[in-house]
Automatic annotation (TrEMBL):
Keyword hit for Cytoplasm: no
Source organism of the structure: Labrys monachus
Chief place where the protein resides: membrane
Protein origin, superkingdom: Bacteria
Alphabetized SUPFAM superfamilies for the sequence: MetI-like (SSF161098)
Identification of the protein by name: Spermidine/putrescine transport system permease protein
Subcellular location: Cell inner membrane
Amino acid sequence: MKSSSVLSWVILALAAIYFFVPLFATLEFAMRQLPDSGFTFMFLGRKHSFDAFVTSIVSPDFQLAFLRSALLAIASIVGGILLVVPTVYLIRLKLPQWRSPVEFVTLLPLVIPAIIIVFGYTRLWIVPSWSPFKTGLATDVLLAVGYVTLALPYMYRSVDTGMRAIDIKTLTEAAQSLGASGFTILFRVILPNVRSAVLGGAFVTFAIVIGEYTFASLLGREVFGTYLQRIGANEAYEPSALALIAFAITWACMGLIQFVGRAPGARPAR
C-alpha cells in the first residue's frame, strides 16, 4: 500500500509538471513586454510587467470581441437547453425507441468537421438572394445556431445522464396528480432536478463558444477566437496573455460547475 501511495504521488507530480510548466512558460513570456513607463518587477533575473495583460484587457477590440462571444455563448446555452431538455424528457418518458437514433444524430457534430457544417450553412442560408441572414444581427443568430450544433453532443449527454439519475415517470405522475401542466412539469419539476447536469453542459458550451474560430471566421464575424488569431499574427506578447485569460475563463467555468453541483438543493429528487 505504501509503494502504491508513493507511485500515485509520483504520477500526480509528473502530471502537474506536464500541465503547469507550459502555463508557467507562457506566463513568463507574456510578462516580458515592458511598458514605456509604469510598474515593473524583477523575476528570474530580468524585468517583467503585466503590461501585455493590461493592454489586452483595455483594448476596445478585445472588449467587443469578448462581449460578442459571451452573448453568443449565452444564446447558445439557452437554445441548447430549450432543444435538449424537452427532447431527452420525451424520449425517456414516452419515446424510448427513439433514443438510439437521437443519440446517433447528436454525435454527428463530432464526426463532421466544423468547416463542412459552416460551409453548408453558408450555401443554404447566406448565398441565396432571398436569404434573410445577410445582416450582422441575422448572421449572429446563424452563428449561435451553429454553436448549438457544435455543443449538442456534450449538452445532450450531460442532460441525459442527469435525467437517468432521477425517476422521471414518478415525478411526472405526481405533478400531474396535482394538476400541473406539461410546461410546469418540465421547467418547474424536471429541470430543477437536473440542474447540475444542465449547468455542466452549459459551461462546456460556454468554453466551446469562447474558443471557436472556424464558424466565426467563415461567417465573417469578429469574436474572441478570431480576435486571438488576428492578434497572434501581428503581436508577440499579447497572444500569450489572451491565451492565459481564455484558459482562466474556462477553468472558472469548470469551478462554477463544481460549486453549483455541490450547492444545497442540487441533489436530484427521488
